[in-house]
Target: DUF948 domain-containing protein
Amino acid sequence: MSPGQIAALVAAGAFVLLVLLLAIPLLKLGRTLDEATIAIRKAHENTDPLFTGANTTLNHVNTQLERVDGITANARAVSGNVSALTSLFTATLGGPLVKAAAFSYGVSKALRARRKRTAAMEPTGRHSRRSARRSGKR
Model:
């Protein structure tokens, strides 16, 4: 055998060894891809019930939102009625009630002032006797 043939045999052996070493990761990669394909297929099969459940949930939510819209419309109408009633009450009874309250306050203040004046002018009762003793009058 010539040195060229020996070199060719060594190169062929190295190439076979390289192919064997690369075949192991390629086989593992193939298995990984097969498992990934199976997982994707299972996930796709399980998404149909999830989408059906999500669609049902959204339909229920939409129904509840329609009910809430009705409730808020009724609450808006009630608050408008209460506002109108308050305005009516203020217009009809508010003015006279304020005037009556102001009048009663003025009368009570005038009576208190008058009592103080009369008490200061005419000393009578226990309080006036004490002040009379202090001043020397009896």
Observations:
- The chain has a mean pLDDT of 86.
- The chain has one domain: 3-135.
